[in-house]
Design a protein that fits this description.
The chain has 3 domains: 174 residues, Rossmann fold (3-Layer(aba) Sandwich); 84 residues, Helicase, Ruva Protein, domain 3, CATH 1.10.8; 103 residues, Arc Repressor Mutant, subunit A (Orthogonal Bundle), CATH 1.10.10. Helix 13 packs across helix 14. It contains 19 helices and 8 strands. By secondary structure, it is α/β, with parallel strands linked by helices. The chain binds adenosine-5'-triphosphate and magnesium ion.
Amino acid sequence: MAGVRGVADPLEEVFSSALTRRIFRRRWVLLPDYVPETLPHRERELRRLAEVLAPALRGEKPGNAFLYGLTGTGKTAVARHVLMRLEGKARELGVAVRAIYVNVRQRDTPYKVAASIAEGVGVRVPFTGLSVGEVYERSVKRLKRLGGVYIVVLDEIDFLAKRPGGQDLLYRLTRVNQELGGNAWVSLVGITNSLSFVESLEPRVRSSLGEVELVFHPYTAPQLKDILEDRAREAFNPGVLGEGVIDLCAALAAREHGDARRALDLLRVAGEIAERRGDPLVTEEHVYAARIEIERDRVGEVVRGLPLHAKLVILAIIRRQGAREGKSVYTGEVYEEYKRLTAELGLEHVTLRRVSGILGELDMLGLVKSRVVSRGRYGKTREVILDADPKAILEALQEDPMVARLLED
Ligand SMILES: Nc1ncnc2c1ncn2[C@@H]1O[C@H](COP(=O)(O)OP(=O)(O)OP(=O)(O)O)[C@@H](O)[C@H]1O
Ligand SMILES: [Mg+2]
């Protein structure tokens, strides 16, 4: 196959390089959903959660637990790992323990959450037509008949509490053992990365859910390095990682907030870039390229999901800052430019107040940074600065046919 070099057959080249797979041995080991065998630097959390849930193995009621901490600190990984091991042990011992894992961001209404739990206990639920209460009652009835211990994990639980009826469902779940009357036990594990959510929880829900609270701290650079080394050994072919690559991924991720997902993404994408380019080694240069690519993807995804007027506001910011790249612009200027853009498209504009609201949303999405500044006797105004690569933003805006009309020149 190496002999086709001289022949200009680009597809043959693509096929043969796909077959040799120089860089990765098992790329999927670096994907976010992979549950690794070992979780370095989470021994304490693993142990603590296992202690809370272990009474299930004696057929007794396990405690509830609440896991929180910033994104990428291993909350989901720790929960899944402990559940997997607990179910394994229960099978070995022949006791009835069942884990029901629900990602509430994906199943984002009280109905869907109740339905997931119902399905987890073997109740068939239609897509619609029942009330949340009804689904819940059926699950309780079934549980009473079946017996056993159930561990319900509600991951990204803040998405449930935000929904109408979400807090009610949560409250009922925290009380379910009373309804079961000792015939079966349910334990709840809530997970969130939203610290403001933790504060906003109804006290009665929090005290019940948070019987045990586990706080996940960001990883330090050396800890990230250990995590990456473990996973890299599985994922890559021996000898393909260049000097300093893992250190760099760890350092870049630690500089933000010690996010293991970020560190793993950098390493994976760096490997993908090396493989795509046909390079035999993953180098630091690939890591820097990966950082740009990840950032571009993130920005693109966020921008594509924005409503039209938010897209126009962000375009207005880019237009206003113009040659002054990296400089801040005032809300008033952004608003004037935004109005010009809507006029060009023949659209009604929204109010200044609404645009301020949009700026706040763009800030939360990490596209801009804004702060209130005092302008002496002119009062207060807000200063906005772009916090993402304008090229990446423009690329994504270009995909919106309406906005693209403004970008033609
Ligand atoms: N200690 C660790 N050892 C090995 N891999 C880890 C460790 N901690 C996290 N990871 C990996 O990092 C990635 C992110 O971790 P995880 O999904 O558990 O984060 P999280 O705290 O649930 O974040 P979020 O709040 O965004 O859901 C996953 O791929 C996970 O396997
Ligand atoms: Mg998670």
